[in-house]
Design brief:
Layout: H1 3-20, H2 27-36, H3 38-46, H4 56-62, H5 64-67, H6 72-85, H7 89-101, H8 106-109, H9 112-125, H10 130-138, H11 141-146, H12 160-170, H13 183-192, E1 196-198, E2 214-216, E3 226-228, E4 231-233, H14 237-245, H15 248-262, H16 269-281, H17 286-294, H18 297-300, H19 312-323, H20 331-334, H21 336-342, H22 365-379, H23 385-396, H24 403-413, H25 421-433, H26 439-451
Antiparallel strand pairs: 1-2, 3-4
Helix pairs in contact: 1-2, 6-9, 6-19, 7-9, 9-10, 10-14, 12-13, 15-16, 16-17, 19-21, 19-22, 22-26, 23-24, 23-26, 24-25
Amino acid sequence: MTTVARKHEDVAVMAHLLRRAGFGATRDQIDQYVARGYEETVEDLLNPSHGQPEDQDLMDRYFIASVEARSVGHADPQWSWRLATSKKPLEEKSALFWHSLLAVGGIKLDHGLEMLTEIDLFRRVGLGSFRTILVEISQNPGMMYWLDNQNSHRGAPNENYGRELLELFSMGIDDMGEGDYTEDDVKSAARAFTGWASKPTPPPFFLGPFPMEFRFDAPDHDDGEKLFLGETGNFNGEDIIDIIVKRRATARFIAMRLYLYFVSDEPDNQEIERLTDVFQETDGDIRSILRAIFNSDHFKSAAVRFRKVKSPAELVFGAARLTDRFDIPDMDSSLLANQSLYMGQHLLNPPGVEGWHEGEEWVDSGSLIERINFAASEVGRVDTPGIRRMIELVEIAGDDLQPEEFVEACLDAMGSIDLGAGSKEVLIDHVKQNDSMSSADRTVEMFQLIVSTPDYQYC
């Protein structure tokens, strides 16, 4: 491989990593990461420093209603701002992953402040031990309310949380609806989680919402002997989680979900088995599994690039980041969550305990129009720093570019993206037939045509 070809491949692989481990990057940012090195970039992404963001006070001043968010609508602006501007993209991307997998619906919960607390929980522990993640979410008052565990009592257990913990959060089910557990295991899990509840909170009127609190009610806990997944003991909720995370079915379920989210909409059994081994070797360390994903030849290969349908959040915040237009938490940034909603993904309010269904289900005739219109509008913002820089990069590529070269220069300026041969041919033909426009106008029109292609729906 020539030096030029090697450099081109390095850029393509880095752009791919930044799309999957975040929401994409500008061309200049990609070059900066390439200069740092691929594995070093992976480590930077995997090891964000968690803590109070420096601009939190600024955001609280602009988004006053979200400081004591009563509803999802009041909470959305805060997460929109983070998704659009955070310099810790994998922290936000993994929070979005866990928000769908360990789903809590904001409409039923009706407590925006608690929804923001849950997202911060995922920021804090989402790249760590899966055991810790399960313990934390099992002690999350919003989850306990969402899945009715405050109605689970000694002598009258509610099976909702125990069932979903096994079926949707950890071990999963096969195509026949069967899992590596029985109905009796569900019942034992439910007994173990009795007494785990959300502490009652005062009504939000007129003082606003009070923070929700987890409460363990020891007298209401069933401390009798339980048989669970072949083990017998006086198990509580943490004991149940300890048993769950040791099972290979759990390791494979999480490996598969991480693969489908970060790599491809189509499972690769060999890769999933490899990641299952990593889970078990590291006691379910999510950071180690993601490191094994991102550093693998399989992930870096052209075979999995642009093969995953963008979720509405990926499309919205990826396009918004290209513009680099958010200096302050203004109204425009607060409305980005609405754009995701119009495309079928209501942030902080998954449609049910299964979360969102990923892949091609994101796109239908209605949502496709919303996706194209939004993306075309964003890349048409010629007054923003990001789009001005994209135009400049195309101009730097040369004044006398052939149609094929012009299309490639535009694709490169947009963050080293690629299109199929059919779409490229259509765009090249368009350039040949429309060469009377000014250079900047022609470039912006090409950006808008690129985001209108079927190929742009993939990352």
